[in-house]
Amino acid sequence: MLLIEHDMGLVLGICDRVVVLEFGQVIADGLPDAVRQDPRVIAAYLGGGATSGSGTGDAGTDDGGIMSSTLAD
To answer: How large is the average pLDDT for residues 19-46?
Structure first.
């Protein structure tokens, strides 16, 4: 299953694999915990407050990014 979503808390909470795009370019691909810690993902989606690993932050930014993920069947 494919999910395309900007709500990082939702995506990181329910998906097994996450691919993060910013302006059409892949900036991260992997397990949610690894993607959550990626500096490019933090800058584009999570903001500075996300380094605690809470999965919350500025997920509603209007930066042209798309979060797509696969869900477990």
So the answer is: 92
